[in-house]
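Morning. Coffee machine broken again, so started the prediction first thing and wrote up yesterday's gels while waiting. Chain of 461 residues, entered below exactly as on the submission form.
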Amino acid sequence: MSFVVKMNGALNDGIHSKGMNGNGVHHLSVRTHVSVNPAKLKSNRPRWTVRPSEMSKKTLNPIRAIVDGMKLTPNPEKPMIALSIGDPTVFGNLPTDDTVLQAMKEAIDSHKFNGYAPSVGYQKSRDAVANFYSCPEAPLEGKDVILASGCSQAIELAISVLCNPGDNILIPRPGFSLYKTLAVSMGIQVKHYNLLPEKSWKIDLKHLESLIDDKTACMIINNPSNPCGSVFSKDHLHKILSVASRNCIPILTDEIYGDMVFSGCDFQSLAPLSSDVPILSCGGLAKRWLVPGWRMGWILIHDRNNIFGTGIREGLVKLSQRILGPCTVVQGALESILNDTPPEFYQRTISFLKSNSEICFSELSTVPGLNPVMPSGAMYIMVGIEIEHFPEFQNDVEFTERLVTEQSVFCLPATAFEYPNFFRIVVTVPEDMMIEACIRIREFCSRHYLPRSLDSHELDQ
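Came back before lunch.
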């Protein structure tokens, strides 16, 4: 090997001069094999530098963060009544229908669903979902359906395909905490639009529209609502669509509680009302069929004016290919579950939820210091706390923490939903437990409630 090197002194051993010009430059020939230790080429970094990713550091579930920080020590003299978990199967009083179980058994016995499915789901299963939800105003085909591992993954896929880091999304307050958890972990800003308790949790439409800017990638509409149990009227949904249409903002609608509405109230899916706004509608089996652990969700792509084009559809397919989707056995049973579940099953569930909601609302409405808002569907009721009448507690977290300590009743503080001084009650518990819980909440409030203090002028009289 030959190279040129400028010399300031004697040559090193093993390097022989071929001659020198007037500039002191030697033409050298290296005859020896130079051995380089690869370790010396590495940087001087520590031997172990394993760090959590930025995404993991940005990921925070508000419910877990709040609940894990609470001092939850139930009263040992009273059995625990947990009204905090949005899982209708916890107490065993709301089983799924036998036809649903039979469909699963047949799928297993067929031995046809033990392998991998396409990332977006079996075509036959996608067709079944499309047929179940298709209507003349919002027609669907199998190609418009993406199956996912529960509604939660469907929401994640929808946010991921619509948003880039630095964008913002509009989400309800109070609202399901997962929206913020997912968005913030992806570097997406969250803007909360207000729901109005005095108007049965309708959206403050002026506030919603005021939040929109050039970086707004989508708005999330949750109807029926978790945590509010509210159900939007057709007129209100039209007004929401008008805001989206004027500002050219696509909608991600979370309708996991779709059709879980009480008698006297109608559920209206958003997509059939839309003439131009493109919508990704997320749903699943979890709540209406009472099988949240089966992890079967879906995205319905409503894009009659081809605003999404091929890009969003292709993006959803690519994102679904990162991790193969929902359980294939459930996919195999899906057509039968959708088509063969008897209407009486849905009606029984809704009747039970309405009855428990009425019990809870009636009992707590007469408790000084509490202001429950009667729901129209889903599985929840929100209860306002007139915190100024409970001076021992600074906020809803302390209030609900002490409720556990004294009465062994656990309600979720609504700070977890970005809405302080409320708490959420899950109404899926057996009726006798619902009644007992309300009795204990009344006792707790009567013990800690103080009437409004006289103002300084009255004290001077």
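The two ends are 106 Å apart (CA to CA). Going to sketch it on the whiteboard this afternoon.
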